[in-house]
Amino acid sequence: MSQAGNPRWWDEQRTSGWERVKEALRRDWEQTKADFTNDKGQELDQDIDDTVKQALGKQPIPPRHVPNSDWDEVEPGLRYGWGAASQYSEHSDWDDRVESKLREEWTDLKSGRTWDEAKGTVRRGWESARRKAS
């Protein structure tokens, strides 16, 4: 075995491939738990076709906790929230002031989605950026 518990033949190409496959399988596992239990797992609109396409790199893998069918809808909000977290770094937490400022900006963007439709994904993007910053 080589470094990090890998065999000698394990290389960067295998690591890269595994990372892609691992995320597809993780999503499949979460969906399976959601399908068979009421309190475990998360509904991700993930089926075997999604898992295979994601594992092969033929379909993008949405961020964790984002359903497959909603990616195109949620990506603008996630992107905006992620960027806003660094733009407004003086606000360490999501609060009424931050939300009011972001709501106003979002409305001015005329994205085709209302603030109420986008707020959850904007906040998810904000919180994701904050976790990575800390």
Summarize the structure.
The chain has 134 residues and is mostly helical.
Word description of this protein:
The chain is mainly alpha-helical and 134 residues long. The chain is globular. The mean pLDDT is 82. It has five helices and no strands. It folds into two domains: 3-61, no CATH class; 70-133.
**Main sheet summary:** none
**Percent in strands:** under 5%
Radius of gyration: 18 Å
Level of helix content? 55-70%
> What's the number of helices?
5
The count of DSSP E runs of length 2 or more, i.e. the number of strands, is 0
* Unreliable stretches covering 5 or more consecutive residues: none
Structural domain count: 2
Task: Please tell me the overall pLDDT.
Answer: 82
Distance between the termini: 34 Å
Indicate the structural class.
mainly alpha
Write the layout of secondary structure elements.
Elements: H1 12-36, H2 48-55, H3 71-87, H4 96-109, H5 115-133
Helix pairs in contact: 1-2, 3-5
Key traits:
single chain; mainly alpha; 2 domains; 5 helices; 134 residues
